[in-house]
From TrEMBL:
InterPro entries, alphabetized: Macro_dom, Macro_dom-like
Native source species: Streptomyces tagetis
Record lineage: Bacteria, Bacillati, Actinomycetota, Actinomycetes, Kitasatosporales
Name listed for the protein in its UniProt record: O-acetyl-ADP-ribose deacetylase
Domain Macro: start-end pairs: 1-170
Entry-linked CDD domains: Macro_OAADPr_deacetylase
Length: 170
């Protein structure tokens, strides 16, 4: 089945969902934007699990386009699904890597049994991806996914992002 797509304008760290997707960097050790906010609000349990993942499964860091889950710590969720989006490039088409972030996050959510997943606009912040293109790729990828996730919620920080995703859902 395909998930119901909903849009929310707000702060992803304030969402209640089975899983919250983190637009992580490959180190998994926190950073700026969504990544830093999730680590700050979620507390030290998330960082502790990320350090264990780095020490075991991902010594070189999580590859771009992949996803892995940890506890959600103090967030109102059971899990955080960390995914590493690609940096935008005018020279190289990295759309498939961005789509993979959404597919892989849904695959991990299925493995966990998550029914509601809150997504940020992966790669739209410091990684420089144009919001309209992120919205297109994210919505198309989630719409075409075969998953047990019932609701894919895009949590968008500002009005411009919300408008871009609304236009793609139309």
């Amino acid at each position: 089945m395909t998930p119901r797509i909903t849009l929310v304008r707000g702060d992803i760290t304030r969402e209640s969902a089975d899983a919250i997707v983190n637009a992580a960097n490959s180190s998994l050790l926190g950073g700026g934007g969504v990544d830093g906010a999730i680590h700050r609000r979620g507390g030290p349990a998330i960082l502790a699990e990320c350090r264990r993942l780095r020490a075991s499964r991902y010594p070189e860091g999580l590859p771009t386009g992949r996803a892995v889950a940890t506890t959600a710590g103090d967030l109102d969720a059971r899990w955080v699904i960390h995914t590493v989006g690609p940096r935008f490039s005018r020279r190289d088409d990295r759309s498939e890597l961005l789509a993979s972030c959404y597919r892989e996050s849904l695959r991990v959510a299925d493995e966990l049994g998550a029914r509601t997943v809150a997504f940020p606009a992966v790669s739209a912040g410091v990684y420089g991806w144009p919001m309209d293109d992120v919205a297109r790729i994210a919505v198309e990828t989630v719409r075409s996914a075969r998953t047990s996730v019932e609701e894919a919620r895009f949590v968008l920080f500002d009005e411009g992002a919300h408008e871009a995703f609304t236009a793609r859902l139309g």
